[in-house]
Amino acid sequence: MKNTCRLFLCIAIILLLFALPSQCSNSSHPTNSSNSENEYLEKHLPLLKNFVTYLEPNDTNDPAAFQKPWSLDERSFVSACMEQIGAEAPNLVEAIATPSIKIARATKIESQDFQSSFKTIHASTDRLTGTIWIADTFFVKPEETKIKESKKDLVHEIIHLADCGSQFSFSKEWVVFAEPKIGLVQKVVSQNPERMHFELDKEVKKNKIWPGIHASSSLSEALAGCFAAAFCGETFCGSDEFRKIFYAHLLNPSHQRRSWISHFRMGAHYFIDSEYDLAIMEFCKCKAIDRSAPMPEVYIARCYLAEHKFELALQHLLVARRLLDTAEIPLSEPTTQKTYKLLVELLTKANRTTEAQEVLSRFLEYKPVKSE
Ligand SMILES: [Zn+2]
Predict the structure, then answer these.
(1) Ligand 1 center to 347 CA (angstroms)
(2) pLDDT at 371 over 60
(3) HSE-CB for 149 with a 13 A CA cutoff
(4) In angstroms, rounded to a whole number, what is the distance separating the alpha carbons of residues 226 and 316?
(5) Which of 131, 130, 150 is nearest to 139 (CA)?
(6) What are the CA-CA distances from residue 119 to residues 63, 108, 123, 197, 205 (Å)?
(7) Residues with Cβ within 5 Å of ion ligand 1?
(8) Which of 100, 207, 261, 300 could disulfide-pair with 53, CB 3.0 to 4.6 Å?
(9) Would strands 52-55 and 101-105 be described as parallel, antiparallel, or unpaired?
């Protein structure tokens, strides 16, 4: 019986490992621009010269990304878009520019959707370093919609930065609003396995079901997708409700949210640099701002884990699990899966096998949407 349990735990841990998102463990440093580029920015982009830092390959040290240098044209185009966004949403931009918004270039960016298949996307955000990555495809758009679509892409990433530590997307209020609609889109996709994703995506948007299939891959993608659509004046299922409850909060982040963003960002910075005591202090400041948020607990646990303080890590993970459950964060979320995996590992290590099995069986109840 004991061996069966152990086998059961091992299989589940392997399954959970596959579900983990990759973590970037490198810090980024601002780049030095050449004089002519500085002059250009000074002349044309007075608002953003202090808000945007363009990272060159040497500044990021990220082996996972297909990095490439910026051309002046690309920087000018992104700056022009950011300038417009800054003018339309100054408080949002200011809240996430701590002290600037770091933007880096990559040849190609891929994202995994809820069916675990990879899709090429225009831009993405490294949640830990707070860097926005821009792919080649970002610049390949029809001329007539280029600015609008590019602004939408950037606004989407800006929301990921504003939602750092998933403070917004892991709130119960957001789960209640978004989860049923995410489920609806996932069902549409699973019921039409023969249809191409881009066709379905078009249909989902056209019929105003949701801001797209990508916006159904997780709670944070849903938040970024809804905000970017609302920012561009698009309507979708629940868009009135979204505008009323969420849009204004994100557009004008409160003092509390700004403070959260800067503490979480600092915590992540120390975490990357292996300065765990300082990181824990910052994450504790986030806890003081929002006691219901699970992510500070998750990161404090990860700090203790890195220091091999397993008992402390376990305590914080148990709190994180309770907060994830209270907010009803589904098991489809990578963070929930990762937390469960670590819990099973640490409970097993502490010989708390019954609790480990309980966490595991809860995980195994989860059935991801399948296309067959
Ligand atoms: Zn996104």
Answers:
(1) 33
(2) no
(3) 13
(4) 32
(5) 150
(6) 20, 10, 12, 10, 18
(7) 221, 224
(8) 100
(9) parallel
Residue 49 Cα to ligand 1 midpoint, Å, equals 25
Q: What is the mean pLDDT of residues 281-285?
A: 98
Chain length of the chain: 372
At the topology level of CATH, where does 258-364 sit?
Answer: 1.25.40
The amino acid sitting at 272 is I
Lowest mean pLDDT across 54-68, 242-256, 261-275: 54-68
Q: How far is the CA of 121 from the centre of ligand 1 (A)?
A: 9
Instruction: Select from 368, 372, 364 the least CA-distant residue to 344.
Output: 364
Task: List beta partners, residue 105.
Answer: 134
Q: Rounded CA gap, 76 and 72, in Å?
A: 6
Over the chain, what is the mean pLDDT? 84
Question: How far apart, in whole angstroms, are the C-alpha atoms of residue 100 and residue 94?
Answer: 9
State pTM to two decimals. 0.83
Q: Domain-by-domain residue ranges, the chain?
A: 52-251, 258-364
Mean pLDDT of 50-64: 78
If one compares 37 and 188, the residue with the highest pLDDT of the two is 188
Give residue 27's pLDDT band: very low, low, confident or very high (50, 70, 90). very low
Residue 214 contacts residue 222 (beta carbons within 8 Å)? no
> Residue 13: what pLDDT?
47
Residue whose tokens read 């970024």: 224
How far, in Å, CA of 172 to CA of 206, rounded? 28
Q: Give the Å distance between the CA of 221 and the centre of ligand 1.
A: 5
Distance of CA 156 from the midpoint of ligand 1 (Å) = 6
- 52-251 and 258-364 have identical folds: no
Question: How far apart, in whole angstroms, are the C-alpha atoms of residue 318 and residue 130?
Answer: 27
pLDDT at residue 61 in the model: 67
Residue 124: strand pairing partners: 133
- What b/e string do you get for 227-236 counting C-beta neighbours within 10 Å, with b at 16 or more? bbbbbeeeeb
